[in-house]
Amino acid sequence: MVCFFFLSSIVLLSCDTDEFDYQGGKTDFEDVYRPQIHFSPQKNWINDPNGMVYLDGEYHLFYQYNPLGTVWGNMSWGHAISKDLLKWEQQAVKLYPDELGAIFSGSAVIDKNNTAGFGENAMVAIYTSSGQKQTQSIAYSTDKGRTFTKYSENPVIENPGMADFRDPKVFWHEATNKWVMSLSTHHTITFYGSANLIDWEYLSEFRYYDGGPYGIWECPDLFPLEFNGEKKWVLLVSTTNAPNGGTATQYFVGSFDGLSFKADPAPYPLWLDYGRDNYAGVTWSNIPDTDGRAIFIGWMSNWNYANQTPTSGFRGAMTLPRSLSLVQHSDNYLLLGSEVVSEIESIASDWNSVFTGTIVNESKTVEMGITAPPAYELEIEFSDVQDTNPVLELSNVHGDIVKIELDLLNGQLYFDRRNSGHVSFNFAHFPGRFSSPVHSGLDKIKLNVFVDQSSVEVFINEGLSCQTNLVFPKEIYDQMNIVSDNGSLDVNIGVRVFNSIW
Ligand code: FRU
């Protein structure tokens, strides 16, 4: 996004970069807004997740990082490693700006067959060099991502004359025996192919115009997913044209033959997440076949206000890691569902059933039985729904409140953060009430709600639709009300708390 791209980087060029490396040591992971179950940097600014790749038991997460401050700039690749996608060890910064420009978003692959000649199983990062123009460059690591060497002949793809030419995501396409890159090219995604990660040729361009205002397309990801024994292809595109304002990630489901992607008919745009704070996310590369999941993580913010969120010392966090799958919609097209990865069990307490009963024309306070937890999950099942507008309210003693409102006749869920806590840091864009489709009938509605110190992620009906939103309450919400003022509902509520990942 943003037009300040070309201003960046130069500051770092003359620095002794090591001085900015993270050395461990004292951290302030107890800041009131510090996420307790989400990745956030020890200090400074982050945006997009980059270069996510799995190798020998380690999940690597690189990310857009400003080593010098808490606002966007000096873009470099920060790095963290996890064995379980939840507990992260922050590493030294891996790629700093150079004479070609700042290090913008990109991906990483494991070159099993040494196609590039950097060594068997080299980890190869493919990223955008953003200087006077945007070009694509590569760097490699032969020590499992601990150190990287930039390729001496960068860039590997020159700019054909476009202002927006970035965010390469690469995978090995077995059927045609080549690497395939998805690249954002203004309002389209362009695919390139290569035998060796160094020499790239143009394959095709994908565009989709639905008649509405057209955002800039960024951070694409093309990957296969099985549905009913059939291999489908999913294309993620992050765009500045979000359903609830600012930036969000849409998807297309279709086919890919090694040359071009074709979208199946569906009522596009469809959104991976309808909330305001899930952007630039992509899936992990090199997940073993024995696992087979498409594991996704997104940047939990929105360019509308990302530079102003009220955290101190650090700014930015990632969403919870999610496993993506295809689900049939009753109107005969495929939806992309997302659920939090099962690794979350390792930091979760047992479920505590806190309410089972019928709520009729009342605002029922439900004791959650928790005091100041690091983070928690609610599972709420509504059945025998006579009231078509039930509301879940989460609040604290300071009067900060979020409302999750169902409008079942119209098949919508609303997330209202207008009074969620601190909202005035960007009054024009942050407060609001955001809608998302429920994608199901009235008979049974299940919500899974993950509440951390500064975020709420809502998954509807096993992840058929979701909303991720930042919130900045004075304290985590620890009070719950279920409101049914227009009939009755049968409700079943469970709560479990999570240990901090730090
Ligand atoms: C998406 C994005 C990318 C770019 C990066 C720069 O949030 O705008 O297109 O590579 O951020 O930090």
From TrEMBL:
<dbReference type="InterPro" id="IPR001362">
    <property type="entry name" value="Glyco_hydro_32"/>
</dbReference>
<keyword id="KW-0326">Glycosidase</keyword>
<feature type="domain" description="Glycosyl hydrolase family 32 N-terminal">
    <location>
        <begin position="38"/>
        <end position="332"/>
    </location>
</feature>
<feature type="domain" description="Glycosyl hydrolase family 32 C-terminal">
    <location>
        <begin position="366"/>
        <end position="491"/>
    </location>
</feature>
<dbReference type="Pfam" id="PF00251">
    <property type="entry name" value="Glyco_hydro_32N"/>
</dbReference>
<dbReference type="InterPro" id="IPR013189">
    <property type="entry name" value="Glyco_hydro_32_C"/>
</dbReference>
<dbReference type="InterPro" id="IPR023296">
    <property type="entry name" value="Glyco_hydro_beta-prop_sf"/>
</dbReference>
<dbReference type="InterPro" id="IPR013148">
    <property type="entry name" value="Glyco_hydro_32_N"/>
</dbReference>
<protein>
    <submittedName>
        <fullName>Sucrose-6-phosphate hydrolase</fullName>
    </submittedName>
</protein>
<dbReference type="Pfam" id="PF08244">
    <property type="entry name" value="Glyco_hydro_32C"/>
</dbReference>
<dbReference type="GO" id="GO:0005987">
    <property type="term" value="P:sucrose catabolic process"/>
</dbReference>
<dbReference type="GO" id="GO:0005737">
    <property type="term" value="C:cytoplasm"/>
</dbReference>
<comment type="similarity">
    <text>Belongs to the glycosyl hydrolase 32 family.</text>
</comment>
<dbReference type="GO" id="GO:0004575">
    <property type="term" value="F:sucrose alpha-glucosidase activity"/>
</dbReference>
<dbReference type="InterPro" id="IPR018053">
    <property type="entry name" value="Glyco_hydro_32_AS"/>
</dbReference>
<keyword id="KW-0378">Hydrolase</keyword>
<dbReference type="InterPro" id="IPR013320">
    <property type="entry name" value="ConA-like_dom_sf"/>
</dbReference>
